[in-house]
Write a structure and sequence with these properties.
alpha/beta, 8-stranded mixed β-sheet, 397 residues
């Protein structure tokens, strides 16, 4: 016999976007019954998500607070020609705290894990085990389904969290260490000191290729550890990913071909920073806006998410232009100079850039001055007369 469940809102996907929507609705719309469906064994997968204090307002910070594992008052960046200490607060959330927060907030029977979605519509979901969910509205947050309508490049990474045999000596995060050998485009290491003897290291690339060689990146992380004299007592966990860096494309076709007939959020709706692939600010903004929205039935959710996603695409046009320069006008070996120059600019400009809220003067200042790539080549790329970013095609991990 087919199992049946009913709820006001069914959320497909228990990652960052889906989990934050559930938390926002639980806080501001406790009258609504929720179901969150995740195909993995736990909510949030296996991730570290980081954000700057200036990315979020007070309401958003309050929503994120229970999931934060560590906060630092400042951070460093390192490049071949300069290092810099920036005094913007920086926080990191972990999947473990994310899962625990959702389970502590939501009723136990509102969380379904280890279950795939077979079919979804605006008011009905069929799970792989035959369970039929009837909902007032359905919102799909199950990750980016199709990137073929976009052009650009890739940000790919392997991150590993270690317990060391002795203290590492890091006082603050290193958000970019680009003093490492430049390979496969622009490469940098990212380091988070979670405890005196616990460090998270991520080897990250801005690459033309989506191919991720995990064993190779793991060896490079090991080499980074060895170069600093850090001896490993234990590997705590590992994560990896390949994220799109979007330079252009047809948003209408992306939305039309994006999946089932439901509302969408997170990367499935294109809600991420086009150049950094950064997702926390957009995920929490959407979750709070949705929780304060009036019509949360199927048609209302669909209309709201489509309108929000289109507005986000339009607001990201400047960052897509920068992605065009990075993956079109700049050769892979030139990308380091672009980021190196960026980190000489005003700290508040850098903050607004990461939050996706650059001012008109910020946009001018990023492009003004002595450019890291020749102006004629940059103009030719922007005018479509020279090398363009390639259509995105995911090659798998």
């Amino acid at each position: 016999m087919m199992n049946a469940r009913r709820c006001d809102i069914a959320i497909l996907g228990g990652g960052l976007a889906g989990g934050l929507i559930a938390l926002a609705l639980a806080r501001y719309r406790p009258d609504l019954s929720l179901l969150i469906v995740e195909q993995g064994d736990c909510l949030g997968g296996n991730h570290v998500w980081s954000f700057f204090a200036t990315d979020t307002d007070h309401e958003a910070t309050e929503l994120l607070a229970p999931m934060i594992e560590a906060t630092w008052a400042d951070y460093n960046v390192h490049f071949p020609t300069h290092s810099r200490h920036l005094t913007t607060r920086y926080s990191a959330m972990t999947s473990e705290r994310f899962d625990a927060t959702l389970r502590a907030t939501l009723p136990a029977d509102s969380i379904i894990t280890a279950q795939a979605v077979k079919h979804a519509g605006e008011s009905e979901v069929m799970l792989a085990d035959g369970t039929l969910i009837s909902a007032g509205g359905v919102i799909d947050t199950r990750g980016l389904r199709d990137v073929s309508h976009f052009t650009g490049g890739w940000q790919k990474f392997v991150g590993r969290k270690f317990k060391l045999k002795a203290p590492h000596g890091l006082e603050r995060p290193i958000v970019m260490d680009a003093t490492v050998e430049q390979l496969d485009g622009y490469r940098f290491m990212y380091a988070l000191p979670f405890a005196p003897d616990v460090v998270f290291l991520e080897d990250t690339y801005y690459s033309d290729s989506s191919v991720l060689d995990r064993p190779l990146l793991e060896r490079r992380i090991d080499a980074y550890l060895a170069a600093r004299g850090w001896e490993v007592e234990a590997l705590i966990n590992e994560e990896y990913g390949v994220l799109p860096v979007v330079a252009g494309g047809d948003f209408g076709s992306f939305w039309q071909n994006g999946g089932d007939d439901t509302a969408r959020a997170g990367s499935r709706a294109g809600l991420f920073h086009s150049l950094t692939s950064y997702s926390v600010p957009d995920a929490v903004r959407f979750a709070l806006a949705l929780a304060h929205h009036g019509a949360l039935d199927g048609p209302g959710l669909k209309a709201f998410s489509a309108r929000w996603a289109k507005g986000h695409w339009e607001n990201q046009s400047y960052y897509r232009m920068l992605s065009t320069l990075l993956f079109g006008a700049a050769y892979p070996e030139e990308r380091l100079r672009i980021l190196e120059r960026f980190y000489t600019l005003d700290p508040q400009l850098i903050e607004r850039f990461y939050s996706g809220r650059s001012t008109s003067f910020d946009k001018f200042r990023i492009l003004a001055g002595v450019p890291p790539i020749p102006i004629p080549r940059a103009l030719a790329t922007l005018l479509g007369l020279a090398r363009q970013p390639a259509p995105l095609q995911f090659s798998g991990v």
